């Protein structure tokens, strides 16, 4: 008769109170963690104060008129950033729609047994390597590859559907669509990586229970796995949007840097980050305050987006628990 399997557990060592060295390590870790949080908060406050103090002259001189103005002319000392605000939000939302769709689809493809584990790991590494490519390289790739590739399609759309505001102009060079496409590729690794972690964190028993109830593979994914991991997936979208709002170099090379407000995807536009990057090198004492004002607005937009995203995630978590 086979002997039953038994675990050999040293109960005496488990029941003993923690040693002094263990307590020291625990306290040291807690102190370092709290110190790290304090340093990060102090750094954020210092950055905001530095930018805010330097933005005071611009705020005092131009006030809210700068937020609603549409003309940026250094020679005439006219500074309006409404087109840049519009371009920042518009390009980021388009990039989020494209990058979010492909990022979540890629996360599902790499985590739900569509590929052998080794091949999935290779694809996962390739996706993560996209995050290591410098922004300026993305910009050059957009100029020499993306714009020539999509221009024939944009011409066809403009000729046949030009009465629709989104296709009302032609793509003569840099514009909103190529900038958004490149931006979508830049945020895709973040969305895909965080979404994969969210899907992998769903217990395997949840998926097995769906199969036990007669669900197909796609029904188990779309009706069980994705809704269960929805909070983490939404968090990846918030992170991707935050990255898109602050992207600078690639957009400065691709968006066209034109202060105009247009719904057309093919028209040139501007963003706050590109505006700052292109004007700071030649800025005089008066322009510094204005640019710092614009930087403060960009920080405020990013802060509001992240706060709203965090609130929605917390609301979703409460709904899941209830």
TrEMBL record:
Pfam families the UniProt entry points to: BPD_transp_1 (PF00528)
Keyword Isomerase: no
InterPro entries tied to this protein: MetI-like, MetI-like_sf, Phosphate_PstC, Phosphate_Transport_Permease
Subcellular location: Cell inner membrane; Cell membrane
Transmembrane segments: 31-53, 89-110, 122-150, 176-199, 220-241, 261-278, 290-316
Location, primary (coarse class): membrane
Keywords: Cell inner membrane, Cell membrane, Membrane, Phosphate transport, Transmembrane, Transmembrane helix, Transport
Domain ABC transmembrane type-1: 85-309
Domain of life: Bacteria
Lipid bilayer topology: Multi-pass membrane protein
Biological function: Part of the binding-protein-dependent transport system for phosphate; probably responsible for the translocation of the substrate across the membrane.
Family, similarity comment: Belongs to the binding-protein-dependent transport system permease family. CysTW subfamily.
Protein name: Phosphate transport system permease protein
């Amino acid at each position: 008769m086979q002997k039953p399997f038994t675990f050999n557990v040293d109960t005496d060592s488990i029941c003993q109170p923690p040693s002094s060295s263990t307590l020291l390590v625990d306290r040291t870790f807690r102190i370092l963690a709290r110190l790290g949080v304090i340093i990060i908060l102090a750094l954020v406050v210092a950055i905001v104060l530095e930018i805010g103090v330097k933005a005071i002259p611009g705020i005092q001189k131009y006030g809210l008129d700068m937020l609603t103005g549409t003309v940026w002319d250094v020679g005439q000392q006219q500074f309006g950033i409404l087109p840049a605000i519009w371009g920042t939000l518009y390009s980021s939302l388009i990039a989020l729609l494209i990058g979010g769709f492909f990022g979540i689809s890629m996360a599902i493809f790499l985590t739900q047994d569509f590929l052998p584990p080794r091949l999935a790991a290779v694809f996962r590494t390739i996706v993560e390597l996209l995050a290591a490519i410098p922004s300026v390289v993305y910009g050059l790739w957009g100029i020499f590859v993306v714009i020539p590739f999509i221009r024939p399609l944009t011409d066809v759309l403009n000729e046949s559907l030009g009465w629709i505001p989104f296709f009302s102009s032609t793509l003569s060079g840099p514009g909103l669509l190529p900038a958004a496409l490149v931006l979508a590729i830049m945020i895709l690794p973040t969305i895909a990586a965080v979404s994969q972690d969210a899907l992998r964190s769903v217990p395997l028993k949840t998926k097995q229970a769906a199969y036990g109830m007669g669900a197909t593979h796609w029904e188990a994914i779309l009706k069980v796995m994705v809704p269960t991991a929805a909070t983490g997936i939404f968090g990846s979208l918030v992170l991707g949007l935050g990255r898109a709002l602050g992207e600078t170099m690639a957009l400065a090379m691709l968006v066209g840097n034109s202060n105009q407000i247009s719904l057309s995807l093919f028209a040139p536009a501007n963003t706050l980050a590109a505006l700052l990057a292109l004007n700071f090198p030649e800025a005089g004492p008066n322009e510094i305050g204005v640019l710092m004002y614009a930087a403060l607005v960009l920080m405020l937009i990013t802060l509001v987006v992240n706060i709203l995203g965090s609130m929605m995630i917390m609301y979703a978590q409460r709904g899941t628990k209830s």
